[in-house]
Amino acid sequence: MTDDKGWHLYILRCREGQLYTGITLDLERRFEEHQSNGPKCAKYLRGKQPLTMIYHHAFADKSLALKAEMKVKKLTAEQKKLLACGHLVINEIT
């Protein structure tokens, strides 16, 4: 997925189209935890696999990632889809 160091904001699409937003230090590991439906999977995502990562963005530190996560979580599903396809830029909302 990515080799970038630092914090990552990500958006996942669930099997039935729901969107989930989170942050992590290790994007690949966190995606696999969610995808596996195991004990480290977010409760919201239980039973909603398969998942597709539709967006991710790297941040220099946790504070910036948390601020961006809070703003993205307030977006509508349509706005999140625009962000994922590049029609909305993360810097415009943070």
Task: Provide structural commentary.
With 94 residues, the protein is of the alpha+beta class. The protein has a single domain, classed as GIY-YIG endonuclease (3-Layer(aba) Sandwich), CATH 3.40.1440.10. Helix content is 36%, strand content 22%. The chain contains 4 helices and 3 strands; from the N terminus they run ββαβααα. It has a 3-stranded antiparallel beta sheet, with helices on both faces. Strand 1 and strand 2 (19-24) form a beta hairpin. The longest helix is centred in the C-terminal third of the chain and has 12 residues, at 62-73. The chain is globular, with a radius of gyration of 13 Å. The model has no long low-confidence stretch (mean pLDDT 94).
Helix and strand arrangement:
Blueprint: E1 7-13, E2 19-24, H1 27-36, E3 52-59, H2 62-73, H3 77-84, H4 90-93
Antiparallel strand pairs: 1-2, 1-3
